[in-house]
Amino acid sequence: MQAVISNSLLKNLKPGAKPFEVRDTRLKGLILRVQPSGVMSYYVEYGRGKRIRIGRVDAVTPTKARQDAKEVLGEAYKGGDPMAARKRESAHTLASFVDEVYAPWAEANIRTSKKTVARLVRNFPDLQEKKLCDINPWLVEKWRTARLKAGVKRSTVNRDLDDLKSALAKAVQWGLLEAHPIAGVKRMRVDSNRAPRFLSEDENARLLTALDEREQRLRTQRMSANAWREERGYPLLADVSAVTSADHLKPMVTVSLNTGLRRGELFGLEWSDVKLLEGYLTVRGSKAKSFKTRHVPLNEIARDCLQAWQDQAPGTEGLVFPGKDGRPFDNVNSAWRRVLDEAKIEKFRWHDLRHTFASRLAMAGVDLNTIRELLGHADLQMTLRYAHLAPEHKAMAVAQLIR
Fold first, then answer.
1. What is the rounded CA–CA span in Å between residue 403 and residue 398?
2. What is the pTM (predicted TM-score) of this model?
3. What pLDDT, in 10s, does the model give residues 161-181?
4. Domain extent at residue 259
5. Pairing relation of β-strands 30-34 and 294-297?
6. Do residues 100 and 158 both lie within one domain?
7. Pairwise CA distance, residues 267 & 295, whole Å
């Protein structure tokens, strides 16, 4: 059917039993499609089998539809691809993709989703307003060079690059990109066999001393605070003079040193996963980095520590180390840093308690595969960093050589 597409036509046009189209006689290519339901929409046809939807008649006037159609036809006449241009206009920028698409998915599927999303936003400022398809290897190399010049470690740059590549891989998987734009960008080489930081015997002694001194200081402060409250008739704070631990820090450090738990695993540990009588604790796959459940034996030190901690706060449910309002800890940086300063221990992170656990096992002659299982490493490659701490193994191998 051909006719002048106008307001008058729209008022008098009746839907049929099947969809039909009206082709405008004033502008070749402008089409009005009428559905049996009565819904009518404008389209512009700019080649055989090539058409773009302009909009519904209840949202677009015939005059506006004709103007939009002229723009599309003019673009096609010049050799452009109107469909591709419109796809590009509506395509996500990195910022909109992360905020609207990737972040909701990450929250449901990535344990460290908030940190991952924050890094994607914070560490790629110059890419935020780029369309996903415009992110290319040259832009990434430019970003990488700037990060390195700013003093950022190569391992950190690699981690950030991994985050970006993973996000863009999801965009390809979800049909928002035809191909991965930076698939060919490689990670920088780093020394994966560098020695892990762990406590020396002297540092370990200083750390334990600093923790004990902190315990005593907390008890003294609590006694002083309660004396002040009692004089004024205020409710007294809990008495910590007779308990083993004045607060969470020392038992958390003790458990970490003797189990090798990751910080997040420790923060999320629940009493239902601690078997004091049987002498082990369970790291659930839902809380493990590898998503695999593992069982970690408790030595005497760890068992006594957890038993004493449970005794002073009776109960076998919920978090072992609850934070404020019973929620999991986010970090213990403030108290931890003060203890390290008092112990005069430098360049040491909470995660290095895990390295200390593994390093001591290696130096005690425990085989690397057992260490791997205790740490929950997915493969032996991560555990090999502790191999140098058992030099007798290499010495025995070399000794097999015959002159």
1. 11
2. 0.67
3. 999 999 999 999 998 888 999
4. 201-395
5. unpaired
6. yes
7. 17
Task: Give residue-wise pLDDT tens across range 237-275.
Answer: 888 888 889 899 999 999 999 999 999 999 999 999 999
Residue whose C-alpha is closest to residue 91's, from 150, 155, 164, 174: 174
Indicate which CATH number applies to the domain containing 264: 1.10.443.10
Q: Please count the other Cβ atoms lying within 10 Å of the Cβ belonging to residue 392.
A: 9
Same domain, 239 and 291: yes
Q: Are residues 146 and 289 in the same domain?
A: no
Q: What is the CB neighbour count within 10 angstroms for residue 180?
A: 15
Any idea which residue has 């034996």 for tokens? 297
Q: 50 has which bridge partners?
A: 47
User: CA-to-CA distance for 344 and 206, rounded, in angstroms?
Assistant: 8
Residue 52: phi and psi, rounded to 5, are: -125, 135
3-state secondary structure 174-238: CCCCCCCCCCCCCCCCCCCCCCCCCCCHHHHHHHHHHHHHHHHHHHHHHHHHHHHHHHHCCCCCC
Which residues have C-beta within 8 Å of that of residue 82, sequence separation ≥ 6?
46, 52, 72, 75, 76
Please tell me whether residues 163 and 206 are part of one structural domain.
no
Q: Per-residue pLDDT for 110 more than 90? A: no
165: tokens are 């590549």
User: Is the domain of 78 the same as that of 208?
Assistant: no
Same domain (yes/no): 223, 364: yes
One-letter amino acid of 56: R
